[in-house]
């Protein structure tokens, strides 16, 4: 059954799920617009298949003996199905794990969620994804995600937090938005130089909110760790620091997505990393 992530039960409809505190996984295999060639739309299927090369068991965690119910809903991108997943998650006090696709899928998913002034959105990314249009004339893409969400949901600057930005491919518009404090911003270089201070900033941010949604763009990592990405950048986070950050955020996160997973058949190091990352997220959720 390699069409599901290892340890997950396949469900055709979220309506058939009744267990509280379950984990609901689904994929959005979509590359809406790409400035560089990519294959992240193939990632949800590849991640599931690749998960069977792992046992799902570590020194501290065994997915097969989890106290939670894990359900894989397959791949889709219809708004009504996404809305149904959110309703079920709210009703059952459950968690959502979504697999992209490019970063534009975060807008598709979170635009169907409940967001009030006690909700925070955090994204780990080398890029800001705060453009008004990217590429020129395109208003809904992986580069405009958080501008569109901010406008649609009427979010305040205090509700938005970019962690790990380090790229030098930003537009002037994005640079000005960060400079003008239109979002909270914790750059990679500050994290690397002052880890404990940075972690304190993240903790204090999270404490202000009742609900956290987290988006992880794999290119937040240094390109030496994820060499097959179409948008990888130098001077990014290390895997260990990423895990330390996730240990702070994930216990408070109702929703997590992983996007921009691009790989080559001859080099599956990124798939190794993403599958391992999913196990880490599930392990954190298991212990809360």
Task: Show the helix and strand layout.
Blueprint: E1 9-10, E2 23-28, H1 43-51, E3 70-75, H2 79-92, E4 95-100, H3 104-110, E5 119-124, H4 145-153, E6 160-163, H5 172-179, E7 184-186, H6 188-193, H7 195-206, E8 211-217, H8 239-249, E9 253-259, H9 269-286
Parallel strand pairs: 1-3, 2-3, 2-4, 4-9, 5-6, 5-8, 6-7, 8-9
Helix pairs in contact: 1-9, 3-4, 7-8
Strand content: 15-25%
Which strand order spans the largest sheet, edge to edge or round the barrel? 1-3-2-4-9-8-5-6-7
The major beta sheet can be summarized as: 9 strands, parallel
Helical content band: 25-40%
Number of helices: 9
- The chain-level mean pLDDT equals 93
Structural class: alpha/beta
The CATH top-level class label: Alpha Beta
CATH third-tier fold name: Arginase, Chain A
Oligomer: single chain
- Strand and helix order: EEHEHEHEHEHEHHEHEH
Shape: globular
How many separate domains make up the residues? 1
How far apart the termini lie comes to: 29 Å
Any idea what the CATH superfamily is called? Ureohydrolase domain
Named at the architecture level, the CATH assignment is 3-Layer(aba) Sandwich
Walkthrough of the structure:
The chain is α/β, with parallel strands linked by helices and 288 residues long. The protein has one domain: Arginase, Chain A. 33% of the residues lie in helices and 16% in strands. The protein has helices at residues 43-51, 79-92, 104-110, 145-153, 172-179, 188-193, 195-206, 239-249, 269-286, and strands at residues 9-10, 23-28, 70-75, 95-100, 119-124, 160-163, 184-186, 211-217, 253-259. A 9-stranded parallel sheet has the order 1-3-2-4-9-8-5-6-7, with helices on both faces. Helix 5 (172-179) links the parallel strand 6 and strand 7 (184-186). The longest helix has 18 residues, at 269-286. It is globular. It starts with 8 loop residues before the first strand and ends with a helix.
């Amino acid at each position: 059954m390699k069409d599901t992530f290892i340890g997950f039960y396949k469900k055709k409809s979220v309506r058939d799920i009744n267990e509280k505190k379950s984990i609901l996984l689904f994929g959005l295999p979509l590359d809406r617009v790409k400035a560089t060639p990519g294959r992240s739309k193939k990632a949800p299927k590849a991640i599931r298949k690749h998960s069977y090369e792992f046992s799902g068991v570590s020194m501290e965690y065994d997915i097969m003996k989890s106290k939670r119910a894990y359900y894989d809903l397959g791949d889709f991108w219809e708004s009504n199905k996404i809305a149904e997943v959110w309703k079920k998650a709210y009703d059952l006090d459950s968690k959502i794990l979504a697999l992209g696709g490019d970063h534009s899928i975060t807008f598709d998913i979170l635009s169907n969620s409940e967001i009030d002034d006690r909700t925070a959105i955090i994204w780990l990314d080398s890029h800001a994804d705060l453009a008004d249009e990217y590429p020129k004339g395109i208003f809904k893409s992986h580069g405009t995600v958080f501008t569109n969400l901010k406008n649609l949901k009427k979010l305040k600057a205090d509700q938005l937090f970019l962690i790990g930005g380090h790229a030098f491919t930003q537009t002037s518009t994005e640079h000005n938005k960060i400079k003008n404090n239109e979002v909270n911003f914790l750059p990679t270089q500050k994290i690397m130089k002052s880890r404990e201070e940075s972690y304190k900033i993240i903790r204090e941010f999270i404490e202000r909110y009742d609900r956290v949604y987290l988006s992880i763009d794999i290119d937040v990592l240094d390109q030496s760790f994820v060499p097959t990405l179409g948008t990888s950048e130098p001077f990014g986070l290390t895997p260990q620091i990423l895990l330390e950050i996730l240990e702070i955020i994930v216990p408070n996160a109702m929703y997590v997505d992983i996007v921009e997973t691009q790989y080559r058949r001859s080099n599956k190091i990124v798939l190794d990393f993403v599958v391992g990352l999913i196990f880490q997220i599930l392990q954190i959720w298991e212990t809360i």
